Amino acid sequence: GMVLTPFYYFIFKVNKINIYQKLVLLLFQIFIFIFFYSVTLLFSTLISFFIMLVIDYRFFLRNKLFFLCQFSILIVPFFLNSCFYKVSHTFENLSNISDSSNGKGFESNFEKLKIDKKFLDLTKIDELNILDLTNIDEPNILDIIKIDKLNISAQIVQVTNIIDKITEIMREIELDGIDVVSTLNKEGIINNEKKKYDELYKKKYQFIELRKNLHKKKIAQQLENFSAVEINYLIKKNVTKFPIENKSKINDHTTAVLLNALNVAFLSIKEKPLGWGFNNYQMAFNKYMLEAITPPFFEIYYLNYNDGSNNSIKLFVEFGIFSFLIFFNLLYFILNKNIPVSQRILFGGIIITQLARAAGYFNGGFVLCIIFTFILNYQSFKKNDYEKTEK
Questions:
Q1: Going by C-beta distance under 8 Å and a sequence separation of 6 or more, which residues neighbour residue 325?
Q2: What is the value of pTM for the model shown?
């Protein structure tokens, strides 16, 4: 998917095969797109189609059958394939980037969460009448929980005990209050017991969310003690204990992975504009997933943790503003008329496809093609200088 379409353009541009060989190639391409369609293939076709329009639109006039084949491939997803939905869904949810990565980390999940201080005192939990807590002025939980100074493991045990206590009281109310009283049909008592039950349910939910974030914070504290791969292993092992964004509008993993990678890049550029260094994307990924981002699915905590789902995001995270050098070089290469069109469409198509959709620098010939563009640009510079000198 990352290299197929640019190679087709290269072959048809060089034009050293006969009409029967071209027909066989087109039939093979149609077969691939019918039975192995993907978002990557869609991007590759779209990108190559656009590049060729820019650098040599007359190519399609000379290869009308190939043009019809490419145009049909671009139209098919609108009617037949779910991958177009994934692409459009991604663009629709781009506005969610700032929502799920506001940079406040653990604290952002509890800006509106209020829990009484007594809830966090295990020595008093057995003496506490939890039903009366709703009448007490409740401070913000962030004034109570000092994550960086206290033992998180002990807090997880503490919060778990509180959840169990609330569950026990809720069960008593349900048995002795709601069910029994409803049988007697005493409406006033029913409403009173129901209100108490609802308040307890809300408290229980808050503590469950608190426990999830404590588990996440516990892993985050170990970032400096383990390698990125080891941290990712810990994330996978504990991921079901982490919080997820239940109200998210994102409902497919492809969109979630891409938007999550954009979140990582956004936070990375803000914190480290010079980048995290070569092949260090996973360090940034682990840090921001544990400290600043709450994804819509558990799998997003570890999917594509080392490749960013595309190479442009990986470049931005690892090289920061220096990554623009690669983009400027690529733009010059595509528009450089001193380089044959066949080479520009081949290398440019492969690189841009993987900037939009890829799996690292060393798959699909990405690094090799980047090197070729620098070499060919350099050679064109030398050629121009030589011609000027001769004149």
A1: none
A2: 0.72
**CA 91 to CA 219: how far, in whole Å?**
32
Render the burial of 138-169: b for 16+ CB within 10 Å, e for the rest: beebeeebebeeeebeebbebbeebbebbeeb
Cα–Cα distance, 328 to 3 (Å, whole number): 22
What distance in Å separates the CA atoms of residue 363 and residue 369, rounded to the nearest whole number?
A: 11
How many CB atoms within 10 Å of residue 118? 16
Rounded CA gap, 190 and 178, in Å? 6
DSSP string covering 292-315: T---SSGGGGTTTTTTTTSHHHHH
**Contact by Cβ (8 Å): 199, 134:** yes
Positive or negative: CA dihedral 247, 253, 259, 262: positive
Confidence (pLDDT) at 90: 57
Q: Which two tokens stand for residue 77?
A: 């997803």
Query: 320: phi > 0 → left, psi -120 to 50 → alpha, else beta; which?
Result: left
What are 388's two structure tokens? Answer: 């000027």
User: Which residue, among 65, 51, 53, has the nearest Cα to 15 in the 3D structure?
Assistant: 65
Q: Which of 182-196, 259-273, 314-328, 359-373 has the lowest mean pLDDT?
A: 182-196
Report the candidate in 253, 267, 269 with the shortest Cα–Cα distance to residue 302: 253
Within 10 angstroms of residue 289's Cβ, the number of other Cβ atoms is 27
Between CA 92 and CA 94 the distance in angstroms is 6
